[in-house]
Amino acid sequence: MRLHSAERRRRLTSRLGEINFSVIGQYVDYLVEEQGVKNIFVNGTTGEGLSLSISERRRVAEEWVTKGRNKLDQIVIHVGALSLKESQELAQHAAEIGADGIAVIAPFFLKPWNKDVLINFLKEVAAAAPALPFYYYHIPALTGVKIRAEEVLGGIQEKIPTFQGLKFSDTDLLDFGQCVDQNRQRQFAFLFGVDEQLLSALVMGATGAVGSTYNYLGKKTNQMLEAFERKDFSSALNHQFCIQRFINFVVKLGFGVSQTKAIMTLVSGIPMGPPRLPLQKASREFTDNAEAKLRSLDFLSFNDLKDGNLGACS
Ligand SMILES: CC(=O)N[C@@H]([C@@H](O)[C@H](O)[C@H](O)CO)[C@@H](O)CC(=O)C(=O)O
């Protein structure tokens, strides 16, 4: 079972909106030591990969690979872009620096209109890094490309020999289940990306997870994975419900990449800095509310509350 932190690459501090590369080493140590996360997905959604320039994406990937050496198990770099050329350049770069895999989203401005067109695009990117495992990153709510993952997977390995698996960031569990069911004879990785539904996906055959909350709820989620693996489903469900209580709370306040950064700063103590425009920094009110919730669920230690805290999830 692999758990990936979706925060991966991190833009940090700086009033100028520049990336603070110098804290990536600290970030690696935090994920490994405090959250038990050793598989990293760099330059994805949470890392605002699509808001970065190509040279920034290259440099972020290099930092994660360098700082993660001998500490992390796997680093997958997201190399999706609107321009096939840029995507290929990033794929080639990922291979050169020694990444463990690449992932690609569907291009989302001039969109592929059917499965074959999408696969043709993915194939050209994969071919730029012919020795690297390739993942299709399915996130239809953000790309607007609604081609079902189940369809995309049909015959994909024949077209993309390096195809390794799917990162599935959608709530359509019928589609996800069918991806697994129809590919049982293959050794694909099925990485699930909706953290609040991970347990349901595990039941259907998810082999790992990539998500934003593992940056600060990695340890909690690992407890759920362990319970699931030892078939203690009641305990696994308790863990999932606890995680849901938090996500449900923040979703109602307005939750996204900016808010993830604020929570990460709060929990890790590493200054994650503001997001890049068009995203806006999370409000102080959001962070205060999220902090109170984390404490009440015992996701952040708060000794004064512990004894009488009936809602605690520890
Ligand atoms: C739309 C979105 O940001 N989804 C997140 C989830 O982890 C999400 O934040 C979480 O399930 C809470 O809804 C991940 O799927 C994103 C992700 O893995 C990435 O950063 O590439």
Characterization of the model:
The chain is an alpha/beta fold. Helix 1 crosses helix 2, helix 3 crosses helix 4 and helix 12 packs across helix 13. The longest helix is centred in the last third of the chain and has 21 residues. It is globular. It starts with a strand and ends in an 8-residue tail after the last helix. About 5% of the residues have low confidence. The structure holds the ligand CC(=O)N[C@@H]([C@@H](O)[C@H](O)[C@H](O)CO)[C@@H](O)CC(=O)C(=O)O. The site of the ligand CC(=O)N[C@@H]([C@@H](O)[C@H](O)[C@H](O)CO)[C@@H](O)CC(=O)C(=O)O has 15 residues, from strand 8. The ligand CC(=O)N[C@@H]([C@@H](O)[C@H](O)[C@H](O)CO)[C@@H](O)CC(=O)C(=O)O binds next to strand 8. It catalyses: aceneuramate = aldehydo-N-acetyl-D-mannosamine + pyruvate. GO terms for molecular function: N-acetylneuraminate lyase activity. Its EC number is 4.1.3.3.
Strand content: 5-15%
Instruction: Report the sheet with the most strands, covering strand number, pairing sense and barrel closure.
Output: 8 strands, parallel, barrel
Share of helical residues: 40-55%
> Any idea what the radius of gyration is?
19 Å
Overall average pLDDT: 93
What would you call the shape? Answer: globular
| Ions, cofactors and other bound molecules | ligand SI3
Order of helices and strands: EHEHEHEHEHHHEHEHEHHHHH
Q: By helix and strand content, what is the structural category?
A: alpha/beta
